[in-house]
Amino acid sequence: MNTEELVEYFRAQMRTDPDMASAVAAIRTLLEFLKRDKGETIQGLRENLKGATDCLTGVDSSVAVSSGGELFLRFISLTSLEHEDLSRCKKVMEERGELFLEKISMSRTKVAKLCHTFIKDGAKILTHSYSRVVLRVLEKAAAEKKRFSVYVTESQPDSAGRQMADAVRNLKVPVIVVLDAAVGYVLEKVDLVIVGAEGVVESGGIINKIGTYQTAVCSKAHNKPFYVVAESFKFVRLYPLNQQDVPDRFKVSIFPPGALLSLCFLYELFSPQYKADTLRNMSNLSEEHPMIDYTPPSLITLLFTDLGVLTPSAVSDELIKLYL
């Protein structure tokens, strides 16, 4: 499987199922790469898989693809310590890969089951941008016949919040789109905030769509619970202390000030490939519009994951378990 085939397989996965997380698509691609690989040694096989992971992070520079790929390699490569025979080792790797994929495919359902109980009848919820996990939580709450309403931030510069609002309306749930700058104004009306995450870092903080940090700050000021819902494959071995500590490869996408953007241009502009291209082609990133920001653990009330309900301080313990 050469580089072009690898990239095309990954993109085909995303096209086939738009609801699929990019990390899951990357793991499916890596599993297919493993099945087709012609490596003659265990070490060579591991190096080929590492190269394939690097290739995918070059196409989609999101935190989830990086952390998901790393966890997948860690999970399946443990078998190389148990079997010396290459064919047997590869077969067990494939079995472990299938098991890992099956496990993470159930993540959103587990998160929704845990989080929906925190949504009470008559609740007013604020969420930021578009998140498939948040949507699954709201879907579960609606299925339980709970009555609630949702405020969604517009989430500039790509207006992802409008897509989220349309999805919530399809659940027959009342929804209002608010300006990003109106978060502080709206928060006095809401009961809780639920956001997704692109990555959960070692400190228990999160990396997510730009605007999440200001939403968390306003939530703290209004004494409203700030809940994060995320799958465990988004746990990443990073320990940023501030916004500048977040690696540039995760946060860069260009946004021309004042540009009137067509839908087609928006797609090209904010697709994962464009973010990666920006990193390769731009020497000065000071004028780039960051697509993500970092929210510290002190602003987060609880994290709902497929590993359970965690306080931010418990994340480091779970990360150690994942990578050991």
General description of the model:
- The protein is an alpha/beta fold and 324 residues long.
- Helix content is 49%, strand content 14%.
- Strands 3-2-1-4-7-11-12 form a 7-stranded mixed β-sheet, with helices on both faces. Strands 5-6-10 form a 3-stranded antiparallel β-sheet.
- It is elongated, with a radius of gyration of 20 Å.
- The two termini are 30 Å apart.
Q: Note the run of SSEs as H and E.
A: HHHHHHEHEHEHEEEHEHEHHEEEEH
The helix-and-strand class reads alpha/beta
Instruction: Report the major sheet.
Output: 7 strands, mixed
Provide a count of the helices: 14
Mean pLDDT: 82
Broad shape: elongated
Helix content: 40-55%
Give unreliable regions as ranges: 253-274
Strand order of the largest sheet: 3-2-1-4-7-11-12
**Cα end-to-end separation:** 30 Å
Strand content: 5-15%
- Give a count of the beta strands, DSSP E runs of length 2 or more: 12
The radius of gyration computed from the alpha-carbon positions, rounded to a whole number of angstroms, is 20 Å
Keyword list:
single chain; 324 residues; alpha/beta; 7-stranded mixed beta sheet; 14 helices; elongated
Provide a compact summary of the structure.
The chain is of the alpha/beta class and 324 residues long. The protein has helices at residues 3-16, 22-36, 42-59, 63-77, 86-105, 107-115, 132-143, 160-169, 183-187, 212-221, 248-251, 263-270, 272-281, 315-323, and strands at 123-127, 148-153, 175-178, 192-195, 199-200, 206-209, 226-229, 252-253, 289-290, 292-295, 302-305, 308-310.
